[in-house]
Amino acid sequence: MNLPDNIPQKAKQELEKLLTGNKNFIKGTPTAKNMCLSTLQKLALYQEPYACVLSCSDSRVVPEIIFDCGIGELFVVRVAGITVGPNVRESLEYAVKKLHVPLIILLGHDDCGVMNYANSHYPEMTEHFQSILKCVYPVIDHAGQMECNNKFARKHTVWVEDYLMNHSSIIKSHVEQGDLYIAKCHFDHDSGEVYLINNDLERI
């Protein structure tokens, strides 16, 4: 598993754990054990997730399942198209500042309905879904329309990281101090694989 050299050790450890869990999911050999009432009861008064995942609300993208995790392991924020507004940003900030997670995963995916919708309506601001479009259209404004919506989704994931670094002093300061790493990831529906991407949309 080749990960970037600049990942802080704690974040690297947690990311390796999640990518190993994803391999378990792909092979159909999940090992998660923290999925029962007794686990929930132990965590009734506190939580200690080891990573935060911003994922799409898409019913096919369930972080706890595709990363082979149980109750209390992930702090998950789900919103259509991993679009980022104030509430989503502050949810991520809460995970960083209050729960001290060392890792944020931005999880885009194949066949994203938000990317399909935005690509087919750009540059129109439709009557509905305006907040979502306002989060996605800047990607097209900057990069132009893309025939492949999966490439569009990956480009949007890169844009989300940039947005967070420019609009959240909490996230930016923790990244710069080496206490936090943001992993840009994409979920492949055909293979079930979660893989990392860089700013050039290349697989890591």
Architecture overview:
The chain has 204 residues and is of the alpha/beta class. The chain has 8 helices and 5 strands. A 5-stranded mixed β-sheet has the order 2-1-3-4-5, sandwiched between helices. Helix 6 packs across helix 7.
Notable traits:
13% strand; alpha/beta
Distance between the termini: 9 Å
How is the biggest beta sheet arranged?
5 strands, mixed
Task: Give the percentage of residues in beta strands.
Answer: 5-15%
Mean pLDDT across all amino acids? 96
Share of helix, binned: 40-55%
**Count the strands?**
5
SS field, number of helical segments: 8
> Are there runs of 5+ residues with pLDDT below 50, and where?
none
Shape: globular
Q: SS-based structural class?
A: alpha/beta
Write down the secondary-structure element order: HHEHEHEHHHHEE
Radius of gyration: 17 Å
Topology:
Layout: H1 9-27, H2 37-42, E1 51-55, H3 63-66, E2 74-78, H4 86-97, E3 103-109, H5 113-121, H6 130-143, H7 149-167, H8 169-176, E4 181-187, E5 194-196
Parallel strand pairs: 1-2, 1-3, 3-4
Antiparallel strand pairs: 4-5
Helix pairs in contact: 5-6, 6-7
Question: What is the gist of this entry?
Answer:
The protein is α/β, with parallel strands linked by helices. The protein has eight helices and five strands, in the order ααβαβαβααααββ.
